[in-house]
């Protein structure tokens, strides 16, 4: 990928507000054991031969037992969701026809990362060669949401305004309690495995302007720290190719409804941050040390925990932080017709309650896989 920063800025100048693109990552599973199986290339080749729509929408990720589907650029959230629902149905039909199940949790709770084969592409060969154990250890699955934002400076300032929101979005999306065959005691083991290990990851600094961000990318390039801008893995970042603000903080979701609701809320957060920027609403660039406290609380306790209200400097239940997000985004949600339906208990909460009641981790994961099959596989085709 090019690191032509001038061209990237031009891409934001011609971007369209509130276009939406969705990316969902699934694990490829043996239907008998629910272990990971390295069959991405098989699914890719089968899609290429039988379903050109699906073939255009799937991508490989770090390990061969993972597959990503992409909606492409939707004109708005509703269009992106319709596209993604169609692609989901096609993928689940293809996988079922080839004797595979698909999982959608932030980690595979049982698999041995040491046994996973990395995908053979130039990009991921570079990642594994550069990061070694850090990359090999990262068997994780997530949901990414792209929202079009016009103007490079505006996109950077939207990213800045979203920094305090990220821990709440993580708490809401937490869906990975198990890792390495163990109950981790966390709500988002994916975040601990990926975000806390990869370089240039997690909640970024506030940059303020495109020039400041471009200087940072230029420094990394000149010092041979990166060769692709996507090697900056921040939990929110401007995406050079698409002219979008990309939110990357969320675990993959066990059910299609939860994934759709998160996509809706994230779209509203990006749009509201842009509206606030346009209207000159006050905004403080909070220090990373405070945001990190909330990030850890989201990792450890998710929606069962408490967040720090960084305006009042006092604790509140995570549910209250989510309600503040809903209140904050109410104006733009009304404008855009966005009404996310949030689950009473998220994936991690359902898992934790089962684990705490003595249900074996294997059974907890099997239940999640069943939820995934029953919701994602039953999507109605786009019309």
From TrEMBL:
Native source species: Baekduia soli
Catalytic reaction list: L-cysteine + L-glutamate + ATP = gamma-L-glutamyl-L-cysteine + ADP + phosphate + H(+)
Coiled-coil portions: none
One Gene Ontology MF term: glutamate-cysteine ligase activity
SUPFAM superfamilies according to UniProt: Glutamine synthetase/guanido kinase
InterPro entries assigned to the protein according to its UniProt record, in alphabetical order: GCL_type2/YbdK_subfam (IPR050141), GCS2 (IPR006336), Gln_synth/guanido_kin_cat_dom (IPR014746), Pept_M10A_Zn_BS (IPR021158), YbdK (IPR011793)
Family to which the UniProt record says this protein belongs: Belongs to the glutamate--cysteine ligase type 2 family. YbdK subfamily.
GO biological process, alphabetically ordered: modified amino acid biosynthetic process; proteolysis
Gene3D superfamilies xrefs: 3.30.590.20
Keywords from the UniProt entry: ATP-binding, Hydrolase, Ligase, Metal-binding, Metalloprotease, Nucleotide-binding, Protease, Signal, Zinc, Zymogen
UniProt function note: ATP-dependent carboxylate-amine ligase which exhibits weak glutamate--cysteine ligase activity.
Enzyme class, broadest EC rank: ligase
UniProt keyword Nucleus, yes or no: no
GO cellular component: extracellular matrix
Cofactor(s) the protein requires to work: Zn(2+)
Record-given protein name: Putative glutamate--cysteine ligase 2
Enzyme Commission number, as recorded: 6.3.2.2
One Pfam short name: GCS2
């Amino acid at each position: 990928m090019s690191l032509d920063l001038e061209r990237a800025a031009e891409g934001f100048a011609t971007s369209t507000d509130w276009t939406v693109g969705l990316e969902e990552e699934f694990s490829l599973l043996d239907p008998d054991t629910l272990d990971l199986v390295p069959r991405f290339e098989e699914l890719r080749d089968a899609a290429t031969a039988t379903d050109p729509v699906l073939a255009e929408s799937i991508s490989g990720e770090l390990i061969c037992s993972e597959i990503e589907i992409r909606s492409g650029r939707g004109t708005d959230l509703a269009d992106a969701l319709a596209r993604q629902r169609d692609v989901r149905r096609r993928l689940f039909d293809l996988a079922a026809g080839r004797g595979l199940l698909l999982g959608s949790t932030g980690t595979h709770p049982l698999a041995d990362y040491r046994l996973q084969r990395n995908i053979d592409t130039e990009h991921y060969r570079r990642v594994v060669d550069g990061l070694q154990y850090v990359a090999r250890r990262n068997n994780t699955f997530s949901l990414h949401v792209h929202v079009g934002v016009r103007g490079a400076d505006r996109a950077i300032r939207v990213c800045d305004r979203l920094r305090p929101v990220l821990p709440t979005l993580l708490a809401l999306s937490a869906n990975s309690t198990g890792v390495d065959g163990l109950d981790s005691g966390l709500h988002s083991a994916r975040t601990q495995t990926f975000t806390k290990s990869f370089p240039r990851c997690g909640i970024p600094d506030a940059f303020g302007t495109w020039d400041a961000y471009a200087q940072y990318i230029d420094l990394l390039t000149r010092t041979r720290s990166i060769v692709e801008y996507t090697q900056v893995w921040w939990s929110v970042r401007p995406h050079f190719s698409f002219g979008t603000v990309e939110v990357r903080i969320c675990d993959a979701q066990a059910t299609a409804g939860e994934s759709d609701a998160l996509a809706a809320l994230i779209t509203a957060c990006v749009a509201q941050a842009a509206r606030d920027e346009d209207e000159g609403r006050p905004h403080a660039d909070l220090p990373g040390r405070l945001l990190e406290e909330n990030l850890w609380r989201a990792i450890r306790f998710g929606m069962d925990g408490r967040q720090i209200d960084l305006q009042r400097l006092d604790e509140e239940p995570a549910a209250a932080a989510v309600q503040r997000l809903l209140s904050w985004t109410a104006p733009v949600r009304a404008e855009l017709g966005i009404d996310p339906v949030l689950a009473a208990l998220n994936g991690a909460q359902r898992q934790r309650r089962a684990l705490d009641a003595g249900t074996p981790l294997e059974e907890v994961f099997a239940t999640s896989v069943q939820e995934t099959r029953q919701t994602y596989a039953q999507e109605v085709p786009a019309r």
